[in-house]
Backbone:
């Protein structure tokens, strides 16, 4: 296929997706349109973690920490001063934050930047480690972030969390940011920078011997992953409309959920990450029947809460053992690939 | 801090540290053999506590029998987890093994939520009440205003002393097992070189299974002692102690059993001392272990007693 045709096809496909999203907003009820928004948010989380874990060959378990940072930052910037006055019961909010309110877009950008700064500060010492040590160090940092959120009463409102966040996140914000994220990560992954990252992933020592600065490349990927995690955190916080540091919403469970998405989609594939995010959002809603009462052949079974998580974690282990490539492996969506799939189907 | 409080804190820290040590040994032994961080270790710790709880409440067994059975069940669980989840991916890249371990950890946690429900349960009535009483050495009691008791001597809970004794017995047994039995010798051989050992006619899979069982049994002992000390049982109780024990294992040098014990004791004592010196920082005590981890990893990643890992090209 010619390059021009591909560009034209892409230019047709993007408005088509936008049209579908618009129709879903108009035709479906608010429950479904919330799920479609959530798919966009999960997509950003999964793609940003793919950049770190799938492409650059370091394994981070600290994504939830950056998401929490983003959620807190943007929430503190979009809440109105009166609301902050009402929410901060234990201690007053510190000075510059208690009197400012800025638009959602800028709050999201700042959330991303704050998360990126923290990713830099965390990545600098921990990227000297490799493999599982790095995983544990980042997990430790994300726990530290959560513990600080729980204890810094004058900034995060401690255990009470933040409530009544303005309902800013809609389909357009979520999917718009997803588009930005995918565009950035894709163009990065297929530049010389991305090739260097993949070289490091395949063989760290050999890449080093070829003159690739492993530390610098991995740090940049980590910081960029942190930036988009912060963005997704801002969107997620305004989607949930509450931030509660006590529960596992922004803890290790969130990192684990994103890990399920990218492993399901295929570790290392950006397309796979989006598909994985969509599947996860869809499955976790669809499997809700497991937690409600079930009528099985006349027997009434009481719903058991926690069933969905059991199914997901079981599925996760089974995928890792029997099907470690996931849905997409490391391949990406391409128009050529799509055409060849159709060709194979019609030849038979 | 006056010397009396210092000594009290020291004993408490020592007993907390010996709990960390018991859990850390499981991490360090598995890592020494498979180079795998067994994320599920903290959840085996949690399961052991639930087993003990249910042997006492549902099966109506006396507490000592329930404890022994729970420890045996924990060992069996560790063995099963290895057989089902880790054995099929033994030759996969290390990162896949790590991801699987995370999955197993969450599987056990959600299993506990489904089977035992996510509501925290009390462990207080299960074991003899006398374990939670205070030992007072030296000094006399003064009674003021009716019920308020002021004690002159050094005081710490009975459980602290019992933890120390049980941990010491377990460690002596472990030492005997690793250095004086044939299976222990095989374990040491496997941790040195897995392929050569299998060429020498050792059934490597069985040895690895034994390692998991042994580590899980120690985690089970630690879990029951932990639950007597902090008598709240819930499905996510294994995460923080598990992570701290892992920090202890890394601190002492992962792969080294004496290192895990040393790391556990140091971590326990410093943690209790920190809270004792700065009570205002008590909320941050869980973060403290991670700070230690990050400092250790950036200064001396091989830990106190570990050997540095060499990458051969």
Residues:
């Amino acid at each position: 296929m010619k390059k021009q045709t591909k560009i034209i096809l892409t230019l047709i496909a993007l408005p088509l997706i936008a049209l579908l999203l618009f129709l879903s907003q108009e035709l479906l009820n608010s429950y479904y349109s919330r799920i479609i928004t959530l798919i966009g948010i999960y997509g950003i989380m999964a793609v940003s973690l793919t950049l770190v874990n799938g492409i650059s060959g370091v394994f981070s378990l600290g994504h939830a920490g950056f998401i929490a940072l983003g959620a807190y930052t943007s929430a503190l910037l979009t809440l109105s001063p009166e609301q902050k006055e009402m929410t901060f019961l234990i201690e007053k909010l510190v000075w510059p934050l208690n009197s400012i309110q800025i638009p959602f877009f800028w709050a999201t950008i700042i959330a991303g930047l704050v998360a990126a700064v923290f990713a830099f500060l965390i990545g600098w010492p921990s990227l000297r480690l490799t493999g599982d040590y790095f995983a544990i160090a980042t997990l430790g940092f994300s726990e530290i972030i959560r513990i600080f959120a729980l204890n810094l009463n004058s900034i995060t409102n401690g255990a009470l969390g933040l409530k009544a966040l303005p309902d800013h996140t809609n389909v357009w914000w979520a999917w718009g940011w997803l588009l930005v994220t995918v565009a950035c990560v894709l163009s990065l992954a297929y530049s010389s920078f991305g090739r260097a990252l993949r070289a490091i992933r395949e063989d760290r020592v050999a890449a080093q011997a070829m003159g690739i600065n492993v530390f610098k490349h991995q740090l940049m990927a980590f910081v960029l992953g942190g930036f988009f995690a912060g963005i997704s955190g801002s969107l997620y916080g305004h989607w949930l409309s509450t931030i509660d540091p006590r529960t596992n919403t922004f803890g290790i469970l969130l990192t684990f959920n994103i890990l399920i998405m990218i492993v399901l989609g295929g570790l290392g594939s950006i397309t796979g990450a989006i598909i994985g995010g969509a599947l996860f959002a869809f499955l976790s809603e669809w499997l809700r029947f497991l937690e409600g009462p079930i009528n099985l052949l006349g027997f009434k079974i009481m719903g058991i809460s926690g069933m969905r998580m059991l199914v997901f974690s079981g599925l996760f282990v089974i995928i890792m053992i029997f099907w470690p490539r996931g849905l997409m492996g490391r391949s990406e969506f391409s128009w050529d690939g799509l055409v060849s799939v159709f060709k194979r189907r019609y030849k038979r | 801090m006056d010397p009396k409080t210092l000594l009290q804190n020291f004993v408490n820290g020592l007993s907390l540290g010996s709990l960390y040590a018991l859990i850390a040994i499981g991490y360090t032994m598995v890592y020494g053999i498979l180079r795998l961080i067994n994320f599920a270790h903290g959840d085996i710790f949690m399961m052991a506590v639930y087993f003990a709880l249910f042997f006492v409440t549902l099966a109506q067994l006396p507490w000592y029998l329930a404890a022994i059975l729970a420890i045996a069940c924990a060992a069996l669980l560790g063995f099963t987890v290895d057989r089902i989840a880790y054995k099929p991916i033994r030759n996969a890249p290390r990162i896949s093994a790590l991801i699987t371990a995370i999955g197993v950890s969450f599987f056990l946690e959600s299993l506990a939520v489904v089977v035992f429900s996510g509501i925290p349960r009390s462990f207080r009535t299960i074991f003899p009440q006398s374990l939670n009483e205070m030992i007072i050495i030296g000094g006399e009691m003064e009674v003021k205003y009716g019920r308020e008791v002021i004690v002159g001597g050094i005081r710490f809970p009975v459980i602290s002393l019992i933890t120390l004794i049980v941990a010491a017995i377990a460690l002596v047994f472990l030492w005997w097992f690793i250095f004086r039995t044939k299976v222990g010798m095989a374990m040491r051989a496997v941790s040195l070189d897995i392929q050569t050992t299998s060429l020498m006619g050792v059934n490597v899979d069985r040895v690895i299974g034994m390692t998991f069982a042994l580590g899980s049994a120690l985690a089970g002992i630690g879990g029951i002692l932990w639950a007597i000390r902090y008598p709240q049982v819930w499905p996510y109780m294994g995460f923080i102690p598990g992570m701290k024990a892992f920090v202890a294992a890394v601190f002492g040098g992962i792969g080294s059993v004496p290192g895990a014990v040393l790391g556990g004791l140091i971590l326990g004592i410093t943690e209790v001392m920190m809270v004792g010196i700065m009570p205002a920082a008590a909320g941050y005590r869980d973060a403290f272990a991670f700070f230690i981890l990050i400092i250790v990893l950036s200064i001396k990643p091989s830990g106190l007693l570990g050997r540095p890992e060499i990458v051969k090209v």
